[in-house]
Design brief:
By secondary structure, the protein is of the alpha/beta class. It is 43% helix and 23% strand. A seven-stranded mixed beta sheet has the order 3-2-1-4-5-7-6, with helices on both faces. Helix 1 packs across helix 3. Bound molecules: S-adenosylmethionine. S-adenosylmethionine binds next to helix 1 and strand 2.
């Protein structure tokens, strides 16, 4: 993706999440019940110096390991404002910053773990974001992802393609991303994929950087 296109799409993504921030948790109340055990499972593998990208309103804070240092970044300041309030309420010592996973400001090989839940469905240039995770994670570290993807089934998959532009406008997320393929194309080494949720449309991906 060219630099001007990425900048415009990133600005649009930020604006969408700032707009939906006040209702984000409310609208996701039902689906969150099924996501809770998946979040817990993903976080059980996180260690050491951790970066959580696309931290959103802080739904993962309850699962942060007690002895780890976690830095959370997000594009949208209105999502971050809610995350700050949740961190205060739960007394979670997370360090929160505005940031873009496509252009991280951290030095290479900074983190033991990078983690993202329901984020690479909305990052405008997912390959670039995944390559940035590859860069900032130490060679023996882990990249842990949980995301919904396009269902690989002719009719439903096509329907997801047709509805995608509308969903992106309303809710910020692409419903037809091929995230496993994106992780492979970004050059990361996939160690494990679990197929969860209805029709296996939620993927829990454990990957290692490829240095
Ligand atoms: C669907 S929400 C998920 C929030 C949270 N991870 C969760 O599980 O509830 C997607 C989040 O990713 C953030 N995001 C999208 N693109 C991003 C980028 N390029 N860099 C950092 N955050 C981004 C959005 O602002 C939003 O807060």
């Amino acid at each position: 993706m060219s630099q001007p296109t990425m900048a415009a799409e990133t600005a649009a993504t930020r604006a969408r999440y700032n707009r939906i921030a006040p209702v984000y948790d409310l609208i996701e109340t039902l689906s969150e019940q099924s996501f809770k055990p998946m979040r817990e499972k993903l976080w059980s593998q996180a260690r050491g110096e951790i970066i959580e990208v696309g931290v959103g309103t802080g739904k993962n804070f309850a699962y942060h390991p007690r002895n780890a240092h976690v830095i959370g970044i997000d594009l949208a300041d209105q999502m971050l404002a809610r995350a700050r309030e949740r961190a205060r309420q739960l007394d979670v010592p997370v360090e929160l910053r505005e940031g873009d996973v496509q252009q991280l400001t951290f030095a290479s090989n900074t983190f033991d773990t990078a983690l993202a839940t329901c984020v690479f469905c909305s990052v405008p240039d997912p390959l670039r974001g995944l390559q940035e995770l590859n860069r900032v994670v130490k060679p023996n570290g882990k990249i842990l992802l949980l995301d919904h993807v396009r269902i690989d089934q002719p009719i439903i998959g096509r329907l997801m393609d047709v509805l995608n532009p509308l969903v992106v406008r309303l809710w910020g997320a692409n419903i037809n991303r091929r995230t496993i393929e994106n992780v492979q194309r970004a050059g990361l080494c996939i160690e494990q994929v679990e197929h969860l949720g209805p029709m296996g449309m939620v993927k829990l991906i454990v990957a290692r950087p490829n240095k």
